[in-house]
Structures are given as structure tokens and as C-alpha cells.
Amino acid sequence: MRRTATPSFSSLSSATISIKCSLILLVVTLSILLIAPIQVVQGTIEVEEEEPIQALSTGENPSDFVRNKIDSHDVMVFARSYGSHNRQAKELLKRISKDLNSHSEFLDVDLLPGWDGSLIMTELQEITGQWSFPNIFIGKQHVGGNKELDQSHALGELEDMIINVSQEL
Q1: GO cellular-component terms in the record (predicted)?
Q2: How far is CA 43 from the centre of its chain?
Q3: Which of 52, 110, 127, 144 falls between 20 and 30 A from 133, CA-CA?
Q4: Phi-psi domain of 143 (left: phi exceeds 0; alpha: psi -120 through 50; beta: other)
């Protein structure tokens, strides 16, 4: 009669522990490679999935791009190349910026390559809650669109806002 060797309890435990450790190491390694945070819950590992960030055609993160534009200009206008509200806002701010010698930029998002305009529009909506254009920032503060710009100009506040920002930078 032939006897088969059966693994002892201690060797089975050791093998089970080794397999579990290998699986944990594999999950942790994959999480790091995928740049996804991991969370240990009651002895199990859960990988939290993050939405991938769509880069601009330049390779930049849309959030960083928008924030950099806002932070580096006295007046930053995200607009479209068409439409009366966009044209009026750009004309007014160009005239005032020239008179006050302020650092202003006007970016027509519809003229950007590929999906860049849509990515920037989505980022602006997340920051401001505003989907429409123009989307105007003065001194890192969101002013709004053409209607809000006209109101602050009519009240004589627009020039003061730009002067104050120009002196700070």
C-alpha cells in the first residue's frame, strides 16, 4: 500500500501566508504603478480608482494651465472668438488695460487645438460655476461675464479694481 504525503498544518499555513503576502505585494505594486491610492479595510486591500486627467495638447494639466493664466495676469479673459458679449468685454478691457498699462491676456478657447477648449471650459466651470463666455478674472478674482463687467464699469469700480491689482503685482 502506497502512502501519499500530506502537507502538515504548519507548512500549509506557511504556504497560505506566502500566497497572501505575494498577492498583497502584487496589489500594492499595481496600485503604485497606476498611481491609485490604496486603502486597507478589515484586512483587505481596496484600490480607489481616480478618474484619469485628460491633458491639453501641450501635455499640461488643464487645471494647472487655467490657474497659471489667472495667477500670472492682472486681467485674464477666457472668451470665444465670436459673439457680441465676448467682443464687447474684450474691447472694453483692452482699452482700459492699455490706458492703465496693466498686464492682460485674452484667450479665445474656441481657437485652441483639439479638445483643449472643451477641457479649459470644463475646468473654468468647476472653478467658477459659470459655463458661459467671456469668463473674466481680475487680480485672481472671478468677476463673471460681460454683464458683471459692464455693471462694475458703470459703477466706476472696474478701473479701480485693475489699478489695485496692477499695483499689487
Answers
A1: cytoplasm
A2: 34
A3: 52
A4: alpha
Helix H or strand E encompassing 22 = helix 9-33
Q: Helix 84-100 and helix 146-154: axis angle, to 10°?
A: 40
Cell of 5: 504525503
Q: How far is CA 103 from CA 72, 110, 121, 133, in A?
A: 9, 22, 22, 20
Cα angle for residues 133, 136, 138 (degrees, 5° grid): 180
Q: What is the DSSP string of 39-65?
A: EEETTEEEEPP-PPPPPPTTS--HHHH
| 127-160 residue pLDDT tens | 999 999 999 999 999 999 999 999 999 999 999 9
List the one residue out of 1, 4, 119, 130 whose CA is nearest residue 57. 119
User: pLDDT tens digits for 27-76?
Assistant: 666 555 555 455 555 666 665 666 677 999 999 999 999 999 999 999 99
Residue 137 host element (H or E): strand 135-138
Cα four-point dihedral sign 81, 82, 83, 88: positive
Q: No. of H helices and E strands in the chain? A: 6, 6
Question: Do you know the residue count of the chain?
Answer: 169
